[in-house]
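REVIEWER CHECKLIST
Item 1: Sequence provided? yes
Item 2: Single chain? yes
Item 3: Sequence as submitted:
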Amino acid sequence: MVGEIASITGGKLTQGSTFPTTHLLLDSRKLIFPGETIFFALNTRHGKGARFISDLFNKGVRNFVVEEAFDHTAYQHCNFILVNNSLEALHLLAAHHRKKFNLPVIGITGSNGKTVIKEWLNQLLATDFNIARSPKSYNSQIGVPLSVLQLNASHTLGIFEAGISEPGEMERLQRMILPTIGVFNNIGEAHNEGFTDTRQKIKEKLKLFTNASYLVTQTDNPDLSEAVLGFANDKREVHSMELFTWGNKKAATLQVISTVKKGNNSLISAIFHGVNMKVTIPFADDASIENAIACWCVLLHLGIAPEIIETRMLLLSPVEMRLQLKHGFNNCSIINDSYSNDLNSLSIALDFLSQQHQHPRRTLVLSDILQSGKNEYQLYEEVATLLLQKKVDRLIAIGPQLVSQQQQFSFIKEHYFFDSMAQFKKDFYSLHFSNETILIKGARSFEFEQIDLMLEQKIHQTILSIDLSAIAHNLRQYRQVLKPGTKTMAMVKAFSYGSGSFEIASLLQFNKVDYLAVAYADEGVQLRKAGITLPVMVMNPQENTFNTLVTYNLEPEIFSFSILFELEKYLQSSSIKFFPVHIKLDSGMHRLGFEQQDMSELALHLNGNELIKVQSVFSHLVASEQESQDDFTRQQANIFVKCCEQLTGALKYDFIRHIANTAAINRHPDLQLDMVRLGIGLYGIDSHNAMQLKLKTVSTLTTNIAQVKLVKAGESVGYGRGHVLEKDVTIATVRIGYADGYPRRLSNGVGKMLVHDQLAPVVGNVCMDMTMIDVTGIEQVHEGDEVVVFGDQLPIQKIAKWANTISYEIMTGISQRVKRVYFEE
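Item 4: Structure as written out by the authors:
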């Protein structure tokens, strides 16, 4: 593999030893598999990539791509590929990789909305294609090759975005993406400074579609429309290129007739090839409408039926980090759009602000607009016009450019100007934020996320942080031990074991699990409304939820004749055939399920049954994690297999068999069968020691100290005076109690928390909202200091053991009032 990379990149290979190269690494902080990694030492504005080689070598990495000037002689038994330019070598590798795959690839460019369109296309097409797409907003000279190198033989569609800031960049991105279908959504003023004018920028961006056979774009922007038409005509002399245009004009392929906004929804009506059609999206801002129409065009081109498009569009979910609306302190609402700042995106954000009517006042916190390509007076004259049009009541402007142009904003009654973030933060409390909607709009360099944190509602400072990357890692660990062809059902019941709902499900959908399982129908409805399209099994269906199951395409577990007959009655009255169900067998758990003696009657009833379609037959192992119960586990498996054999003869079609839970995946690999049910293992907990060592901690529960005080010997702490002090101690009161899910069983020294990496025992009884801990001897403990309740250094398994319970109970017991924060590393 190393030799092949050297050949592709034109590099000189200094052979040390044979090491596998299954993982490509650009960021040394993200090393996971050192023995299988090849590190590209890229030179960036932050420094030379070669400076990380020593550290990576010490961690076990033995394959490197470096520029020829690097002295590699000090590193023995390593493979070094010496190249002229490591970034160009990465591009060559990605371009070579892309050419291996003959599949449709959608390339997306434009000034705004690239990531949203990409993510929405993924949501809309996930059931039709196995999609490779750009992670997050990877659209740069480094992000694109990382995206393209994800492609493998299982993918049937690629979706990649491309962004440029100067001429000459797009040709390199085009060679790597090689889109067959193009989307050019819009043109704005971002990165204007790198081009002579807008037309030049359009022409440079169009180079992405040099070999594309289809291009989706809008007709309402004259500059963009004219440039695209000229480009397509030029390309037709070389190869066939068709345009799919959308807009208000009659000549558009998809002529948009009207857009009606009602609440948070927008009904978009259009004509396509003489046929009237419509979609409704759960958004009402102009940016989302524009992005949704672009997606609509792509789906029509791909031949997705209009009625299917209509259904899927209604399920679109927001893309993270774009115009997030949340509660702030003093009855404020916050719109955080601090990702970028240019005239076009400011206009879109202001449009979103103008839709908010929950407060009487609208406030804009704005930074300087950087890299606009315009002189300052002209730029801020346009900004002032926008603020006037959108009826901004209060302006808080930060940056030297805005200060110098403040006279242009005198029409706003309340206005404040600050040279820097430091000055703003100094005067923050004098600005008296209260009962208003606040739009935070700033260039990334201003770090306006600090303002978001300052304004955020701080009712409760106990936080459950969930590492999505760790969940993806844990899923990979289990997949590595599965037999080829074995499917995965991920358990997301009980709010995903306390970790979240659609946030976790979205990650699992992205990582291509085959099924999700929830306890009740309303949990499944939440997932559908959040855009989850995976099959979902409902484990506790009730008669009054049958209509919900059908409406939201949820698949019930059938565990008794009574519920089977009631469901069939409903299906018959609704003229529904072959509704998907899952048959639950009781092989020894004795909780729910058909028993072995029921099989003859059940098989007879299912034979030729056209009302339902059995998707799977499954059972639940009682003690798969206990070696002492292995005989009973095998007994359960034997009963299950015999029951399945009887049903197979009756159904005369294939169905999925599954009995293995998390513990059984490793301990009983022969029971993996057609599918496994992966539950608590996803969240980093497995009773099998070898697997536990491979898993990453997913959840970290933290709180902070409300008060620190010295309590004298002979005094008591907490309710009931259950703990009288034998000596003077320093007590820290922390903001967590049994109402948050911290068990009262951990009172009086049973439980402990981490303060400055040291264990501090619980003193007295755990209260509803507070807990006292002994921090005597721990230095520099102050009010506001973070306290770790459980996490990497204090495993949840230990908390469960102290509380004389299991990890499941601790995880699922974390109250909904505890804020969940999701992050990726």
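Item 5: Key structural point noted by reviewer: The radius of gyration is 30 Å.
Item 6: Recommendation: ____
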